[in-house]
Amino acid sequence: MSRQDMLSKVKTLIGLDDDSQDTLLSVIIDTTDQALCFKLQEDTVPTELSYIEQEVSIRRFNRIKNEGMASYTQEGESITFNSNDFDDFLDDINEWRRRHNKDVKALGNVSFINPYWGG
Description:
Elements (H helix, E strand, L loop, with lengths): L2 H12 L7 H19 L9 H13 L8 E4 L2 E4 L9 H10 L20
Antiparallel strand pairs: 1-2
């Protein structure tokens, strides 16, 4: 997905209809893209995972000026942020990595040899 398409979708989802936040959103999208590419061990975010880039970008935008806050409570309202924006998507990321043989948890293949087999 192009940067402009991603920017347009993110703006629509957060309800922005002007260009006043484009610079900030572009930086957030670029940073999110870099982090996701690193996690995937890819140069670009695959199309099927672009929703992760979109969702994490929105979360980061909504958290501006509250970065690093783990919990906030005031007059019955409570806000808590994940320590890692990608935590909710780890299963999807790991599944994509498994399907594309990029599973870092695998240490290789094991073969067992039967010493009693006569073939």
